[in-house]
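Could you help me review a protein record that somebody else here produced? Here is the record exactly as it was handed to me:
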Amino acid sequence: MTEQPEQPEQPEQPEQPEQPEQPEQPEQPEQAGQEHPGTPSAPVAPPPAPAAPPLPPPPVAKDRRVLRALLRWTAAVAVFAAAGGAVAYGITRMERTDVPGLATASDGRWEYPELTTPPLPSGSPGPFAEGNKAGAHYADLRALVLPAPRGAEADAALRGKDGWLPLGTFLAEFADKGDHDAVGRLLTDRGLRHVAARGWSTQDGTRTRIYLLQFDTAAVVDDLVSEELTYYESPRYPVRGAAEVARDQEFPDAAEVEHVTRNVYAEARPYGGEQVREAYLSAGDTLAVIVQSRRGDARAVPFQQTVVLQSQLLG
């Protein structure tokens, strides 16, 4: 501003009166802020004035409602995702005595109640403790039988008296009358002590029978399973309804339970009105026999689940 008196020395300055359009420049502070401090309107507009246009106009309230709705949906999805991850993690981390049999509709698994091993008498070792050479189960054998899954109908014929089953009820599983006598003599000669059992039927028509036979030592049970009652390829004594039974090669090796030896079989095609699956388990002083049958095909997944859970209770 102090240099303007020198302007008369410039010959071209007289043409400046042709600039009447400059009064429109006061609108420039709204577009370019404080770019032209020499204009008379520049001091009038305060510096915060350019920030006024970005303030949300009334339509923005609707946008905020949309944004809040989106945020709520995003939060809900995040909660469900976190919950699903937590459930999956919880299931994979649960011990076998917690919830070993959650229902899974996609593969046909049954939903079992929470399983816990029964308490041992005071001072008694577990069946596979280092000092328990006989492999004895000191817990109540009746409490070691796998319970029925939820929704199943119990088989009253396998309840026995006070939970103990007569040997004859177990022998009735075998098809041949002569086998009843042969197996009965074999078990009696080997010192059979108790038989505990449980059976049930599920809504899909599957019938399950589980028998636990207890002897004096693990050596007796090992010999019975490996030499007397089963061959590698098939059981030695066929059960009712099973004509041709072969080793179940589809049973997953990853489902093995420590300390428990298993021989599993499935009736081969062609079979009659129903298919039969069988398992012989050697677990210390206890022999477990599991028979599962179903009209049409006896499904593999419930059978595998039943065998593994019973093995875990004995192990």
Summary: Helices lie at 28-32, 60-93, 167-171, 177-189, 218-229, 300-314.
